[in-house]
DNA sequence: AAGGCGGTCAACCGCCTCGTC
DNA sequence: GGACGAGGCGGTTGACCGCCT
């Protein structure tokens, strides 16, 4: 016998919240404050599970939530923190107080994971070329060239993980680099119109790969 | 015009953690 | 120390939307 559900499923409404339900929930929380979610459905008459009420509040209705596009800085923070901690979305969200863990998780799954995969694929492709070129006459030259590209990929990765060159990787690992310091430093910088990944995928990698391919052909 | 398809994101599910008794 | 309950968390789902054919 497993644990009983958090609330009686009979008569519980599911699916998207209506504006009326939102108003009821917000009004109640403004009067009583968030917490004691178990009593919220009973006291408000909402036909929602207590968990659903909490989730609606924390992910959507809570004041101070920033919606819309993520800035390059936020993107860099997410990539960096995800690399450090893995899928600890709540911990990552604590460094981005205007974003919810759900938002960050969705953004990672729909945008960043794809970009990271592209980067890894290109890196793997280059390594593959390195192996296949072993029998080639220009083996050493190619190897050096491809090694250089792979190295630059690593360096770029390191730089983005280090908040776009604001903080060194060593410092981050040692815990000497905190988001608030970086925010101040970043405020002095021009905001790039493209993210690192966009720039890298569009420009840097394209031109470098062209060079490698040209060498392979020649 | 309409059906297919993929991307996005709000919401749900079930497990985990922590506090209380 | 263990049972129980509430809240927290991460993975997953499904509705919706826009684009493509």
From TrEMBL:
Signal peptide: none annotated. Coiled coil: none annotated. InterPro entries: Homeodomain-like_sf, Myb_dom, Myb_TF_plants, SANT/Myb. Gene3D superfamilies: Homeodomain-like. Residues 9-65, 66-116 form the HTH myb-type domain. This is Uncharacterized protein. One of its GO terms (biological process) is response to auxin.
